[in-house]
Amino acid sequence: MTVPATTETQTQDLTQEEYKRYSRHLIMPEVGLEGQKKLKAASVLLIGTGGLGSPLALYLAAAGIGTIGLVDYDVVDESNLQRQIIHGQSTLGKSKLDSAEARIHDLNPFVHVVKHNVPLTSDNALEILEPYDVIIDGTDNFPTRYLVNDACVRLGKPNVYGSIFRFEGQLSVFHAEAGGPCYRCMFPEPPPPGLVPSCAEGGVLGILPGTIGTMQATEAIKLILSIGEPLIGKMLLYDALEMSFTTIKVRKDPNCPVCGIPREEVQLIDYEQFCGVPAHDRSDFTADNHDNDIQQITVHELKERMERGDAVVLDVREPHEWAIAAIDGTLRISKGEIQIAKNAVLAGRKLREETVLAQIPQDVDLLVHCRSGVRSAHVISFLKEVGYDPARLYNVAGGILAWAREIDPTLPQY
User: Which domain range does residue 138 map to?
Assistant: First the structure.
């Protein structure tokens, strides 16, 4: 299905410099002069300037998109550089928006960059998204994905969706205004908290966001130029290990609570509460406070408790992470093993003593840590479910990253 341009914008004349810059577009009959003018008149909003946002911003800027909006409030961290190619050593510690803007203008000074240095929330989403023709979701958390989807439905905007994890990626265009499904048609409810790890927890092949991000940019340009067949009503699944692409149909749900009602009736809700996890993209964010009943302990307090020997420190990371960095004297059982054991006990298939839970004592304080505090908070919730005393459970804020920064700088940070 070919979708017309999302808004009626006045085409703009090209300068002599732009004729030269975009010559390879101008000689293509599918783009040509009028198409290049459409690109110059278009405005695209990128939610996130990380792994997906990096190739998106670079290729859309190079293509001549007139206005590129950027939503982010993070700073450039060294761990970003493995995949977030718009940033570099020279911008470490600086705002990602400033870093991206400088690179975009170095690539194409004719692009107007609008920076939104705030977290996207239910309060500001409609105001931020409304001026743009195409919205591109480059986030990595469920609350923001649902928020972007619902705001796009309310505003009648196309939502170019991308998602990446380890070696796999997903791509679609959700556009209810054009008769297609929305994100909620395919994913009516988010997965239980902790079931799907983030890229920070599970990792991602550094090249993968380049593959998915450039395809998102392609879909955006197709929408603006009204050419080809956008991925409306379809989702592309990519497996880098097999180098395979699979396209599946996504059907519009007539009973969808978002696109199944008049769009002016769509109300933005508290998505963090809806998904049960925080909405965050910050590299320094530790989601260890998602349960307000979980007790926190700092790495300095952890060190004191270890010196006194009056608690057990439980490291719930994966074995390959223990090989990178570990605190001596810790009990090491991965979150996955504990989750399997918890499920077996709650389902009545096994007794606690028949699982890895038998290795985790109940009569002492447990100081639980992971990489940054996310998985350890989930594990504490698991232990509560199988009868551990909440008063004896403590989440180590910041995890081993905080330990390496504040206690033992000889440990590598990853």
Answer: 16-275
